[in-house]
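User: Fold this; tokens only.

Assistant: Input:
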Amino acid sequence: MLGFITKNLNDIIYLSLLLFSVFIGPYYRKLDTIEAKKWAGSILGILLIIIVSGNSAALLIMSGLMGISIIKLDTIKRCHVTTFFFMFGYLFVFRIGDKFGLPAPTGQTNLIEMIIVLRVVGVAFEMNGSWLAISKDKKKETDVPEAEIKTLKEKDDEFNELINPEFIDLFHYTFNYIGLLTGPYYRYRTFDDYFHLPFSKHVDCFGFTINTLKIVPLYISLYLAFSNIWPLEYILTEEHNNRHFLYRMMYPWVLFAAFRQRIYSGMTLAESVCTSAGLGAYPVQGRNRTGHGPTVGYLKLKKMSEEEAKMTEYDFKTVESMEVWGCETVVTLRDSMKVWNKAVQYWVAMVVYKRFPVKSLKVHAALFVSVIWHGFHAGYFFCIYFCPFYLMAEDIYYKLYYKEATGMKKKIIGFIMWFLRSHSESYQAAAFLLLTFDRIWIYYSSVYHYWYGVWLAFLILGLILSKVHAMLRPKRQGVSRTEVVNE
């Protein structure tokens, strides 16, 4: 028992702090004034940083302060660009700081810095986006390129308020304890609404929190079971290499299963921190989306009276990071990516994909930023950057066989695609977990790098089948027309 505690001490401390953050939520929510809430949230956040990071805490706090200083010192027209490059440059130096005599960041410390980067860069883009939206409404074509405005069109066309918070408000947003340890990412608009709109007073925070938390013990138990029965390091041993090829091929399934349980438990606890405090609660009629919040009728929601707020139905989809059932059951990798860590996916989409100026490179830019945000290890590149190659083949088979299928045929094809998707994710996850190139090479060599060959074969075969179907389709349509005429 003592050995287990020593081995997992950092994770135990981190888990305890998450549970503390959940527990403190109802008391935080009941603080009397907005200023008291903001300062209490920031002080709690800084205390969490100090407890988790120790000697590295000053570096984390300094990164947030410098980032929001750049936002305020630069113009709203370009602060998003300067902030983006500064924060990611700081993140790079922070991670290699041990080479210059700085404290080496732990995994938990690195995760907090990652969240700070999302918040500071995200709010800079949010401010610039609101300015562009206002410029669009006022038709200031001379100041704002039309092409840049078109890329910012969102579902909520009613939203046309300028977001330009003061330095102290940016400070509170950056360091508030809610979501600071492991997410989820939420916009500054969501943070500001939390203090000024009545929704958190009337939503059933306790009910939502209990409903979210009740499955966490299962995730933790499964993680401990999988990681102890099938440890990661075993994949690098000679004993593993001497096992049957099928065993070696399927071993990443249990590694990825253990990893998923860990992520599920962490993300679910993080969501519970939000639900406990009431942050992210919006009326369901806003058709709320992870990260974004209400997508329709936002200004109407802002004008909702206290009486209406008491009677309305709420959800916390704005701070929902994971759709666990979807992660386990969806058929395609494309759909799996949509339900995995949705808050970060939203950030990447809004900050990188929709804003990147070269259309043909949007996907590559989004993937590259996602990789360097996670870290600079080879495993992140192997895992994230190879997704498009599988998607190319998957999309072909989806359109040819699954999309129009019905009944038992659809179920059988769906199971095959689910198996291939799950196997591909597991193969890539092995690289994500092994991290360094030499460790990845040991495992991939033990299975002869077979999955890349399978991908290539699937893609070539899919392209051929797609051509054949395209050639046969006119003939089939011609036969159908002939039969109709004859009848």
